[in-house]
Amino acid sequence: MDKGYVGLLSAEIMRRGVLHIETEIHWHDELDVLLAAECRPPDGDETPPGQASTERAGQRPGNDLN
After folding, report:
1. Helix (H, G, I), strand (E, B) or coil at 43
2. Are the C-beta atoms of 62 and 50 separated by less than 8 Å?
3. What is the spatial distance between Cα 29 and Cα 17, in angstroms, rounded to a whole number?
4. Is residue 58's pLDDT more than 70?
């Protein structure tokens, strides 16, 4: 192999890796949008999801064993 030359197979293996990374990044971007929409409080409610129900019941958030 000449110095500075990448063969067809090596170039395609590198291209495959780039495609995988681009797909992974795209998936993470979509997930970020979905999670942001899921965590947004309903109109007029400034309390984060899950916090109001546990505070009213006198429980600490994340303590579902009681």
Report:
1. coil
2. no
3. 18
4. no
pTM: 0.52
pLDDT of residue 41: 75
- The encoded tokens of residue 34 equal 């979905």
Residue 50 to residue 66: CA distance in whole angstroms: 16
Q: Confirm if 54 and 60 have CB atoms less than 8 A apart.
A: yes
CB 52, CB 42: distance < 8 Å: no
Cβ-Cβ contacts under 8 Å for 47 (sequence gap 6 or more): 41
Cα 18 off chain centre by: 19
Q: For residues 12 and 18, what is the distance between their CA atoms, to the nearest angstrom? A: 10
Looking up tokens 């007029």 gives: 44
